[in-house]
Structures are given as structure tokens and as C-alpha cells.
């Protein structure tokens, strides 16, 4: 039996679900509100873990191509204190493949491949049932046997199965970037190295991470009210730069330069869903990735979303006669795994951006030793 399956959202999780279904010969419809794959910046780099994101790509038949595109050297990590002293300098072995980095745009293009995405199809809500009905912003409607919400933190599909909405963690981030870092900012290129550099102080920190092509993403992290920037226009680059640098008064100048040489500033407050978020099973609708288990951005989210999608696709293809039972069983497995990772990342955020910077360093030591 060929079910009508719609995936709402063309992020890593939704595209992995669609690509594995395609790989297994099952038709699928991908609905995405963006006008095209390049309608907005794809975001920074992702580290794909061997037992999570890489496993999902293997199920899609894409692992070899991923290894060609990925940057194993991007696993390098350097930790400084606010005075600029190097506390840790981890560098991967030449054959280290545990968590290689890949740009989000490269991963998106890898997953898109032959998929036919319906770009510009903004979903406003989904009404569950034997024929789950997708409502679009242009007033049209379309029925499906299964609608999978892979549409992120502010999912339009989630209300069909759960009333829960994301809550603010008390930690916010401001993103900026450096272009052509090796030529224009060689001192900062040396500071960052091949992977990332992180500096933690009391209730705040700065993290800079290499992407491909000499591009670097820089993130200011701080504990603050959601409206901490009231009265500050972050689109005013000079005003934003001045306000952010004031938060790091007394820090080493090279560390401050990671922020001070930024070209634009974007506010990214960190929201989460409850650690054990689940719902009473609803026929015809389910969720995966951030739509299902939004957690702090500490390297797990995209990996889990991709494995969610790959495993759901395999389950549907393996037992197509009872779609509802397949989805129900998959949800139970997905909730259990996501709950474990949500607890880990929630505790991790508390340690990384908190009153004692030593807890951040200890967390990295634990991760490296494991």
C-alpha cells in the first residue's frame, strides 16, 4: 500500500525522512514555506555524530558523499579563559570521524538530491483524522494519510497533537560572523584554529566556529531577560557592537575582537520544550526534530532529527499495512531517546552559561574523555 505522506519542513530532519523514503521507493511530499532553498541563510555548521546523524545518512545511502564533504578537522576545540589563556586545546586524530563538521547548506543540498520539494507552500495548521487535512496560507487544503511536522521550534503542526509551546531558558545568544577570516583576520584565524574556540566567564561566553570557505560564526551567549536588548537596535551595527563589547569589559582584546569585528548581529534567544515532552498519539499526525523535542543547541538537535526521520521512514516502508501502529511504536522510541538527550543538553546549558566558568571546562573534559 502506498500511503500519502506529507513532510512539513525542509530542514535536516524532514529532508532525511523524505530522502530515506525515496531511497526505499516510497513516494513522499515535502512542503516548505520558504520560496526556495536559498531564500534565507542556511545557518552555521553542524557536527554529525557517528551513531546519530551519520547513521541516518547511511540509511539514506549518503554516508560516503558526506565523508567527502565533511571537515574532520572541524572537530578541533580550544578553550580559553577571559584573560586569553589557553586552558584546553583538543585536536582530532587524522582518522577521527566521530563528529565531523558540515555546513548546513551543504547538508541541505546533499539531502535534497532528487527530492521534489513544494517550495512556497506555507502550512498554517493541520486537522488530524483518517485523512489529515493540511491547511495552507493561500486558503487551499490537501488531505494526507500521514502528516509529519518537521517544521522546527515554532511548528504549525504541533498544535494538532500537543498544546505545549517553547519556553525561554534564560540564556540568549547573539550571532555575528567573520568573512574571509584567513586573509582579512589572520590573527583571529590563528586563535580559532581549524575548529572552534570558546571562552567562558560568569554567566556569559563567546564561541567562534569555522565554517567552510573561510567563514566563521561567532556567538555571544549570556544569561539575561528575554527583553535584555530593549531600546537597542541590533540592526544598528555600531550600537550593537558597542553594547555587546561592554558586556566583556576587561576580557582579552583578541577575544573581544571576535565580537568587535563582526559585520551584523542577530538575536537568537534559546527556547526549549519540556525535557519529557510527549503527547497522546493522534492518528494521521506526528512530529520529529525540534517540533517534537526542542532542546538547547549543544550538538544533539539536528542529529536526533535526522535519525528520527530515517527510522520513521524505515518503519513505514517495512510495515506499510498498519501505518497508525507503525507511527505509534516509532513515537515511543523517539520520545525515550529524545528525553535522554534533552536532559543532557539542559544540564549542559546550565553548566556552560552559569555563575562558575569552571563547570563549563569540566563539561568539555567529560565530553572529550567519553
UniProtKB/TrEMBL annotation:
<comment type="subunit">
    <text>Monomer.</text>
</comment>
<feature type="binding site">
    <location>
        <position position="104"/>
    </location>
    <ligand>
        <name>FAD</name>
    </ligand>
</feature>
<keyword id="KW-0521">NADP</keyword>
<feature type="binding site">
    <location>
        <position position="290"/>
    </location>
    <ligand>
        <name>FAD</name>
    </ligand>
</feature>
<keyword id="KW-0560">Oxidoreductase</keyword>
<dbReference type="GO" id="GO:0004497">
    <property type="term" value="F:monooxygenase activity"/>
</dbReference>
<protein>
    <recommendedName>
        <fullName>Flavin-dependent monooxygenase</fullName>
        <ecNumber>1.14.13.-</ecNumber>
    </recommendedName>
</protein>
<keyword id="KW-0547">Nucleotide-binding</keyword>
<comment type="function">
    <text>An FAD-requiring monooxygenase active on some tetracycline antibiotic derivatives, which leads to their inactivation. Hydroxylates carbon 11a of tetracycline and some analogs.</text>
</comment>
<feature type="domain" description="FAD-binding">
    <location>
        <begin position="5"/>
        <end position="318"/>
    </location>
</feature>
<keyword id="KW-0963">Cytoplasm</keyword>
<dbReference type="GO" id="GO:0046677">
    <property type="term" value="P:response to antibiotic"/>
</dbReference>
<dbReference type="InterPro" id="IPR043683">
    <property type="entry name" value="TetX_monooxygenase"/>
</dbReference>
<keyword id="KW-0285">Flavoprotein</keyword>
<dbReference type="GO" id="GO:0005737">
    <property type="term" value="C:cytoplasm"/>
</dbReference>
<dbReference type="InterPro" id="IPR036188">
    <property type="entry name" value="FAD/NAD-bd_sf"/>
</dbReference>
<dbReference type="GO" id="GO:0071949">
    <property type="term" value="F:FAD binding"/>
</dbReference>
<keyword id="KW-0503">Monooxygenase</keyword>
<feature type="binding site">
    <location>
        <position position="47"/>
    </location>
    <ligand>
        <name>FAD</name>
    </ligand>
</feature>
<dbReference type="Pfam" id="PF01494">
    <property type="entry name" value="FAD_binding_3"/>
</dbReference>
<feature type="binding site">
    <location>
        <position position="40"/>
    </location>
    <ligand>
        <name>NADPH</name>
    </ligand>
</feature>
<keyword id="KW-0274">FAD</keyword>
<comment type="similarity">
    <text>Belongs to the aromatic-ring hydroxylase family. TetX subfamily.</text>
</comment>
<dbReference type="InterPro" id="IPR002938">
    <property type="entry name" value="FAD-bd"/>
</dbReference>
Amino acid at each position: 500500500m502506498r500511503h500519502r505522506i506529507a513532510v512539513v519542513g525542509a530542514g535536516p530532519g524532514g529532508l532525511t525522512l523524505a530522502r530515506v523514503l525515496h531511497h526505499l521507493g516510497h513516494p513522499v511530499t515535502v512542503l516548505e514555506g520558504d520560496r526556495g532553498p536559498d531564500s534565507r541563510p542556511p545557518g552555521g555548521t553542524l557536527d554529525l555524530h557517528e551513531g546519530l546523524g551519520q547513521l541516518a545518512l547511511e540509511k539514506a545511502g549518503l554516508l560516503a558523499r558526506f565523508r567527502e564533504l565533511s571537515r574532520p578537522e572541524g572537530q578541533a576545540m580550544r578553550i580559553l579563559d577571559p584573560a586569553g589563556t589557553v586552558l584546553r586545546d583538543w585536536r582530532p586524530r587524522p582518522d577521527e570521524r566521530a563528529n565531523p563538521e558540515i555546513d548546513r547548506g551543504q547538508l541541505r543540498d546533499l539531502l535534497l538530491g532528487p527530492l521534489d520539494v513544494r517550495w512556497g507552500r506555507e502550512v498554517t495548521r493541520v486537522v488530524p483524522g483518517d485523512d489529515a487535512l493540511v491547511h495552507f496560507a493561500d486558503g487551499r487544503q490537501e488531505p494526507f494519510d500521514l502528516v509529519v511536522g518537521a517544521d522546527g521550534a515554532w511548528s504549525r503542526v504541533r498544535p494538532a497533537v500537543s498544546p505545549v509551546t517553547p519556553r525561554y531558558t534564560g540564556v540568549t545568544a547573539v550571532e555575528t560572523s567573520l568573512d574571509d577570516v584567513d586573509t582579512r583576520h589572520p590573527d583571529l584565524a590563528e586563535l580559532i584554529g581549524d575548529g572552534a574556540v570558546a571562552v567562558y566567564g560568569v554567566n556569559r561566553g563567546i564561541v567562534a566556529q569555522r565554517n567552510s570557505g573561510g567563514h566563521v560564526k561567532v556567538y555571544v551567549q549570556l544569561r539575561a531577560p528575554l527583553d535584555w536588548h530593549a531600546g537597542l537596535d541590533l540592526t544598528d551595527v555600531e550600537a550593537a557592537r558597542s553594547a555587546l563589547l561592554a558586556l566583556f569589559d576587561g576580557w582579552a582584546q583578541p577575544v573581544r575582537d571576535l565580537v568587535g569585528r563582526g559585520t551584523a548581529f542577530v538575536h537568537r534567544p534559546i527556547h526549549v520544550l519540556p525535557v519529557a515532552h510527549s503527547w497522546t498519539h493522534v492518528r494521521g499526525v506526528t512530529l520529529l526534530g525540534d517540533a517534537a523535542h526542542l532542546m538547547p543547541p549543544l550538538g544533539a538537535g539536528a542529529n536526533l532529527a535526522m535519525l528520527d526521520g530515517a527510522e520513521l521512514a524505515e518503519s513505514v516502508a517495512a510495515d506499510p499495512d498498519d501505518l497508525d501502529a507503525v507511527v505509534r511504536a516509532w513515537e515511543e522510541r523517539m520520545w525515550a531517546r529524545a528525553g535522554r538527550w534533552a536532559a543532557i543538553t539542559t544540564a549542559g546549558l546550565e553548566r556552560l552559561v552559569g555563575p562558575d566558568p569552571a563547570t563549563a571546562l569540566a563539561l568539555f573534559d567529560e565530553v572529550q574523555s567519553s
